Amino acid sequence: MAVRLPADILLSSMICLLVLLNGDDGYHVFHLPSHVESARTSPGSFHWYNGLFVFGHSFADTGNFPKADLSEVTRQWYKPYGCSHGFLQDPTGRFSNGFVQSDFIGKILGRTKAPETYRDTKENNGDKFGLNFAVGGAGVFEVPRKAPTLAKQIDSFKKMLDNGDIGKWQLKESVTLVAISGKDYARVANMTSESEILSFIGNVTDQIAGGVERLQKLGVTKVLVNTLHPLACTPWQARPSNYTKCMGRGNMAALFHNDDLEKKQNATSSNNVYLLDLN
Ligand SMILES: *[C@@H]1O[C@H](CO)[C@@H](O)[C@H](O)[C@H]1NC(C)=O
Ligand SMILES: *[C@@H]1O[C@H](CO)[C@@H](O)[C@H](O)[C@H]1NC(C)=O
Ligand SMILES: *[C@@H]1O[C@H](CO)[C@@H](O)[C@H](O)[C@H]1NC(C)=O
Ligand SMILES: *[C@@H]1O[C@H](CO)[C@@H](O)[C@H](O)[C@H]1NC(C)=O
Q1: The predicted structure's pLDDT at residue 275
Q2: Considering its fold, how many domains does the chain have in total?
Q3: Ligand 1 pocket, 7 CB below 6 A?
Q4: Would you say residue 245 lies in a domain?
Q5: Is there a domain that residue 60 lies in?
Q6: Domain residues for 156?
């Protein structure tokens, strides 16, 4: 059974929640004062209990795409990215002025930010309570930018499991976030028939549900899966109107997507899969 969580619970910046993961007996959410958040935090040290594994795209990427000369695909390493709050004063490879979704969930788990990026694995300079495989621009299907798809991100994760870099016991104590939130739908702009769009939505949700199932077979126990936000209101859609209007059919597509995803998660009767309602 899939359970929907409202996004405002998980995404508000002054999060007052602590998610406690107690063995296998479920998921307990408590309201606590925010100062409790970082009580267990010690950046840079190695602690895998109550870890976080992240897959997805720019909502969750914390620097997996390497820094390079300024271009459209590396702009997250340049100001004004990262210029706003907290200790993230400089661009960090996040597509944000500050934190992204994986950071907020890291904070809910008692850390200061998201776990280290997959790219940093060898450099030993991140907060090692899990790993972040998300890459900006990624979807379930290949995109022009060639960000690794959800399936490829899971391949990398599997390789680390097979090598023993991540132990299965660690997964039992961890939360996994699947933040695949719409990159695939850029191509819907070119689709003319409604049936083609619906067929494509079905294909995207198949891939997401399939990815979640694969993660569970690999030993992941608790999974948060993003639903789609109102796509037509995202900046890449609203730009032509100077951000005064939500453009196109994206909001309708998002509703179909979310309903379809929920049906599929319900059908696989996966316990401990939580749809995170971004709409
Ligand atoms: C839509 O079609 C045009 C013309 O064929 C192409 O240049 C563009 O890349 C396509 N857009 C997407 C998102 O696939
Ligand atoms: C959806 O997937 C099916 C089966 O792979 C394929 O035949 C169909 O063309 C896909 N639909 C779209 C719109 O891509
Ligand atoms: C958007 O704003 C710019 C700068 O103010 C203006 O030049 C342009 O005409 C506006 N475009 C639309 C579609 O309103
Ligand atoms: C999924 O299951 C939940 C809980 O049983 C139910 O409330 C919801 O309507 C179902 N959603 C769909 C789309 O079938």
Answers
A1: 95
A2: 1
A3: no
A4: no
A5: yes
A6: 2-68+97-229+256-277
Query: Using CA positions, which residue lies closest to atom 4 of ligand 3?
Result: 242
Asked, for residue 246, whether it belongs to a domain, the answer is no
The answer to whether the CB of 135 falls within 8 A of the CB of 153 is yes
What pLDDT is stored for residue 150 in this prediction? 97
Nearest ligand to residue 239 Cα: 3
230 prior amide bond cis, ω within 30: no
Which two three-digit tokens encode residue 163? 């090598």
Starting from the CA of residue 207, give the closest ligand.
2
Asked if residue 242 belongs to a domain, the reply is no
Ligand 4 lined by 259 (C-beta under 6 Å): yes
Instruction: Find the 190 Cα to ligand 1 centroid distance in Å.
Output: 6
Q: What are phi and psi of 30, to 5 degrees?
A: -125, 145
In which residue ranges of the chain is pLDDT below 70? Answer: 1-3, 5-48, 85-88, 122-127, 144-145, 269
**Residue located nearest, by CA, to atom 1 of ligand 4:** 266
Percent of the chain with pLDDT over 70: 78
CB of 68 closer than 8 Å to CB of 190 = no
Determine if ligand 3 sits within 6 Å of the CB of residue 45: no
- Residue 268 Cβ inside 6 Å of ligand 4? The answer reads no
Instruction: Give me the CATH number covering residue 264.
Output: 3.40.50
User: For 25, what's the count of Cα atoms within 13 Å in the CB-facing half-sphere?
Assistant: 1
CA distance 141 to 211: 12
